[in-house]
């Protein structure tokens, strides 16, 4: 590990159908929109391996500014597969977990305002956490955890 030059993790990327809906959903959780852009051309395709591409992106940041989600809506080429209905134990499946306060209120707002669905239930782990998985409006699997007891 002495030669490791890792500085930080910059972001997690999520491909979505509707950028507007995804931005609104993540804003409800508490992330802030940092910016939007359209990335296109052959140079971008050299990075992704997709050739000439056009993608709209939105960068969302957590309130502490340490974590980000890059939301992407591909215009060209179109997405070729959909893993949103895969169970949480599917290989390569992506889930993002957020530490929150007021989990019951947040879950209720996400369901009411954004059509989210609770995957199982809000469950308590010992006297430490209340946790749940929720599927967002675009089918994205999101974890929410509220710490009960400070360790």
Q: Could you characterize the architecture of this molecule?
A:
This protein is an alpha+beta fold and 151 residues long. The protein has 2 domains: 1-80, Roll (2,3-Dihydroxybiphenyl 1,2-Dioxygenase, domain 1); 83-151, 2,3-Dihydroxybiphenyl 1,2-Dioxygenase, domain 1 (Roll), CATH 3.10.180. It is built from 3 helices and 9 strands. It has helices at residues 19-29, 42-48, 103-114, and strands at 12-15, 32-41, 53-61, 68-76, 96-99, 117-118, 123-125, 129-135, 141-147. Strands 5, 6, 7, 8 and 9 form a 5-stranded mixed β-sheet that branches. The chain starts with 11 loop residues before the first strand and ends with a strand. The mean pLDDT is 88.
| Tally of contiguous helical segments | 3
What is the gyration radius calculated from CA atoms?
17 Å
Average pLDDT metric: 88
Q: The CATH topology of the largest domain, please? A: 2,3-Dihydroxybiphenyl 1,2-Dioxygenase, domain 1
Would you identify the CATH architecture of the largest domain? Roll
The CATH class of the largest domain turns out to be: Alpha Beta
N-to-C SSE string, H for helix and E for strand: EHEHEEEHEEEE
| Termini gap | 29 Å
User: Helical residue percent?
Assistant: 10-25%
Quick one: how many beta strands? 9
Number of domains: 2
SSE class: alpha+beta
Low-pLDDT runs: none
- Tell me what portion of residues adopts beta-strand conformation: 35-45%
Specify the overall morphology. Answer: globular
Looking at CATH, the homologous superfamily of the largest domain is 2,3-Dihydroxybiphenyl 1,2-Dioxygenase, domain 1
Largest sheet: 5 strands, mixed
Domain VOC: 8-147
Keywords: Metal-binding
Pfam families: Glyoxalase_4
Protein name: VOC family protein
């Amino acid at each position: 590990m002495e030669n490791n030059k890792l500085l930080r993790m910059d972001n997690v990327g999520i491909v979505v159908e509707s950028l507007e809906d995804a931005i609104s959903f993540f804003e409800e959780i508490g992330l802030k929109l940092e910016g939007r852009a359209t990335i296109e051309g052959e140079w971008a395709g050299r990075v992704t391996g997709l050739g000439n591409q056009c993608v709209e992106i939105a960068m969302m940041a957590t309130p502490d500014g340490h974590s980000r989600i890059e939301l992407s809506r591909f215009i060209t080429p179109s997405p070729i597969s959909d893993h949103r209905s895969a169970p949480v134990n599917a290989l390569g499946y992506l889930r993002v977990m957020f530490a929150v306060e007021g989990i019951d209120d947040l879950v209720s707002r996400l369901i009411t305002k954004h059509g989210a669905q609770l995957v199982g239930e809000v469950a308590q782990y010992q006297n430490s956490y209340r946790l749940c998985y929720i599927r967002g409006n675009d089918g994205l699997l999101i974890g929410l955890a509220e710490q009960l007891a400070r360790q």
